[in-house]
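Before going further, learn to read the protein records used in this course. Taken together, the tokens spell out the fold as the letters spell out the chain. A record is reproduced here so that you can trace the correspondence yourselves:

***
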Amino acid sequence: MSRRVLVLDTTLRDGEQVPGAKLNIYEKLEIAHQLKKLNVDIIEAGFPSSSKGDFDSVQRIAKEIIDGPMITALARAVKADIDAVYESIKYAQNPLIHIVLGTSAIHVEKKFNKSKESILEMGIDAVRYAKTLLPNVQYSTEDASRSDFEYLWKTIEQVVKAGATMINIPDTVGYAVPEEFGELINKINYRLKNLNDKVILSVHCHNDTGLATANTLIAVKNGATKVECTLNGIGERAGNAALEEVAVGLKLRSSYYNAHTNVVLKEIKTTSKLVSTLMGLDIQVNKAITGDNAFAHSSGIHQDGLLKSRDAYEIIRPEDVGVENMELILTARSGRHAFKDAISKIIHKNIENKDFENLFNNFLNLADLKKEVYTHDLYYLVDRYYFEQGNTQAEVHTVSGKLYELVASQVISNDIFPSASVRLKRGEEFFKDSAVGDGPIDALYTAIKNIVGFDIELVEYKITSVSRGKEALGRVNLQIRYNNKVYSSKAVDTDIIRASALAFLNGVNMIIIEDIGNEK
């Protein structure tokens, strides 16, 4: 029978320790409410003794997040810290005190400059005191993966006898390797079950050598029934085990691990984006599960396989984790199969081999120039080809005169009236408009919306650099919502304002193309 693994999310504590990622109380609350939707079992809301602001945030979360996860916060093994945790979480429906104290020789002798016996007694006293306040107490043996095993076990044994209901084994500095860590958890699990089988065994892995997720999963395989993670793997230094990777890994290979979580996978992408946006921490494009390229395919071999059967190169369905759709990016590396699939949505008849080869060569030339080719580019390419051939009966969705081109744009950024002016072309017609906004990009998009007449909501806007130097290319990635449907679009240019305008127009043209297709 599959074991349920509890998930403690420490995005608001360990995750917020990333330099520059400080959140205000309202941002913390927003993330906490989303973590409830994600259905994590425990939210570690902060470190209340560190500041009044952190105390207030933890207390507010404890009061507001009801009918959902347990609420905990971190305390060192001292009375003042434990009191701060208790006072901040006592209003929660299901509060948990989390105590941490080192067990490795490095921590005991160098960090605390005390004897092993005195540190052990300190931990026991802390648990005993916490138990007078609340029934649920977690004890974390900091730097456990570098600790002498017998001293580590002695600590676990004594704090369990003192009343700890959860024992957490941290790989605090990412020192562990999966095989050794799995053996350590297996040994502790065996002894713990004989000592008190009601105590929950947990792990907290850091990613200093890129093994946090692997170490977490091998721990589950060896008996751990609780994992501590963060969204997008953020945290101290190289971060923590990524919640999305652990949850999807257990879902995908549930029979192997004989374990599962209750995480609502469809909420992963939304939660990931919220954390990234509020903390100002970009997600690497190739990040597993939540990166922009996690479900994007540009290799011709991969695109060919996907079009024949999605499971050829896709073991996780993007929609299962809340991603809108699979993305086939047309580049010079895309093969004939991907190109044929793309233009089959444009040309509604069998294409003669000669025409197809000519179109494909034209596409490759365009891809070499543009790097990435979008749907509306294919419409222009096909329209132009058949026009040059003198064939007006190609059964092509007619888009001439319906798609917008950017002719010119100008933005003015200031503290009073950020404004923008744009000039667009549609067929042989020219349009221009000016607008003010909350910033130059808002003004730019307002001017474009005034021209096209669509009620479009900007959902996400992101700029990244794709090359180096003075002539570096900037890529703008957008998500826009129109008629309750989300469209993803992007553009690349040396001018980020122009790239922003092009990306928005690409989205507008996608809407137009879809509407034309629906009319057929």
Summary: The chain has three domains: 3-279, 300-400, 402-519. The first strand starts at residue 3 and ends at 4. Residues 496-519 form the longest helix (24 residues). Residues 300-400 form one domain.
